[in-house]
Write a structure and sequence with these properties.
2 copies of one chain form a homodimer.
Chain A: H1 2-7, E1 12-16, H2 22-30, E2 35-41, H3 46-62, E3 67-69, H4 73-82, E4 85-91, H5 103-109, E5 112-116, H6 139-151, E6 154-156, H7 162-171, E7 177-178, H8 195-203, E8 207-210, H9 225-239, E9 244-246, H10 256-264, H11 296-305, H12 310-328
Chain lengths: ~325, ~325
């Protein structure tokens, strides 16, 4: 019996954007991750995303002993059985659909499971969290949400501003996700989310992936495991334990040129430092207890220490995302 | 002496989007237009605009007895001397620069003189007049305005929402234009502009091109010349006679499929009727006194009848736009 029960506990990291290599897939394997959601677009347009997918096809081919391409929740079960990691594609921006609603179905067919309506800036669909004023989901945004619901691409509002996120929750017929962010009550980063928003997200059946990216953490790199897990407990009180998962935002082995590109794309000729600053422009260092996905074992201990039951902790570490995937992509 | 004075009076229609043909260039020639600003993009991206420019190169070649390509205000003088019409390019949307600020310089080199920051919807740069909420000029919008100022592309806010337009006036180091719209006090169309905005536009040295498009006119197709010219007189009181010109928005010989595309582009799978309606989806009919650009002669009479001096009327009919071009593109 023990083995059957174990089989039902999934470990999922619902946001990674690493400089992919066999070594990193091995780290995820050592961490026993059954699934990861990986970012394959920040600023890329439709054609550029296709190039990124070609690259992923190479990874699936070259590292078939470690990863499989995730398209349905069944691939998470399959990956677990085969002792591999299912890799699901997502976009952190709507740039891949350009200004064409018909591309929503096209990117879905290419494997896109999640799409943020905005990165940090205003998009054609909604407002990003770095804009001064948030006008909410736009005319095109409403249409695209309807189309995403129809074809089965999950709305992700991790980098979006507050009104836009409330609008997305309200306009979407299906629950939405915030794949990687933390609550503002814990650390008031622009990217983090208010209690009211988290409550609305939970009430609507949506999911929050707690982020391990230092700019989203209280005390940054020096954040303690205990502080993180206490934050998880308070967040669970606000939005329900079953609506919380992990979206680590791990950016392993990325050169600083990548964070510079993530922040600046081609939208400015000046230099934007995003969550960093001119004196601190680099990717931040991970906390000691979450250097990579193997830190999931620390999270498992930490969550229980702050009072989560075994079931609740397993939910946060993967089962909640698994259930969300099961409802959405089947 | 008479001829020299005449030479200094220009006739300019600062917005046309016709189904171009020799016949239409002839109508503009009969109307003695020295310059027109033509729309070469509504939803087109960078590559698609290049195709449109190729088409225009064909027109300049085939109809060289009627038109020349306008790149500087000097081309308006040249066209007048040669009894031709100088054609200046503009975009009614920022779609040709996609999400890349570096394309501003590229489109300028391709001949773009005007660029709207938005068509009716939200863009990456600003909010269009059909959105429910106007967040103003975005982070990318500020950067792009600076770049447009640097390379010499004129900001056009004809289809933009109010806060966005105020922002553009404030952020732009050079005066901006509203190439084709009318005042709201006369006809409260979404596309028309408030007195406060017109005053700010005039105070900043910007230009308003009065529109002859029936949806922008009091009583639409049945609008009278007298009503139009009285509106011009009141507008002049608000923003200064020298800041007013004509931007007729003539869409001669366009099939209804074009207005459908202008309104819907690829942003919705539903049908949007813009300024029309389900029962009235077509291009509207022009008023009897402005069937085409030859109506400029009616405007000349009408403006004088409502009290404009000869100099003021000549300003509105072209000299004001000429002076604006002279300051901007030289």
């Amino acid at each position: 019996m023990h083995e059957v029960v174990e089989l039902k506990n999934y470990r999922i990291d619902n946001l990674q954007y690493c400089n992919w290599s066999k070594d990193i897939f091995k780290l995820n394997h050592e961490a026993a991750l059954d699934a990861i959601h990986v970012t394959i677009a920040y600023h890329e347009d439709f054609d550029e995303v296709q190039k990124n997918i070609k690259e992923w096809e190479g990874y699936f081919n070259d590292f078939s002993e470690l990863i499989i391409h995730g398209k349905s929740y069944l691939d998470i079960e399959k990956a677990k059985l085969e002792n591999k990691t299912a890799v699901f594609f997502g976009f952190q921006n709507c740039s891949p659909i350009e200004d064409d609603i018909n591309l929503v179905e096209a990117v879905h067919q290419m494997g896109a499971v999640f799409m943020q309506l905005t990165y940090n800036n205003q998009s054609l669909l909604a407002t990003g969290c770095y804009e001064e004023v948030d006008s909410g989901v736009t005319r095109m945004g409403r249409e695209v949400i309807r189309e995403m619901n129809r074809v089965g691409v999950i709305v992700d509002m991790s980098h979006s501003a507050e009104k836009s996120t409330f609008d997305a929750i309200n306009f979407s017929e299906k629950p939405i996700a915030i794949t990687h962010a933390n609550p503002t009550f814990w650390h008031a980063a622009k990217r983090n989310k208010s209690n009211d928003l988290l409550k609305a997200l939970g009430d609507s059946g949506g999911m929050l992936g707690l982020s391990l990216y230092p700019h989203h953490l209280l005390d940054g790199t020096n954040c303690t495991l205990d502080s993180f897990c206490l934050m998880a407990a308070k967040t669970a009180e606000i939005m329900g334990t079953e609506n919380i998962g992990i979206g680590s935002d791990l950016c392993l082995e990325q050169p600083d040129a990548v964070v510079d590109w993530m922040r600046n794309g081609t939208w400015t000729r000046a230099k934007d430092f995003g969550e960093g600053s001119a004196s601190n422009p680099s990717f931040p260092k991970q906390p000691s207890w979450f250097q990579d996905a193997r830190g999931f074992s620390n999270l498992a201990k930490g969550l229980k220490e702050v009072g989560f039951s075994d079931n609740e902790a397993q939910g946060i570490l993967g089962n909640n995302w698994f259930n969300f995937y099961k409802d959405y992509i089947n």
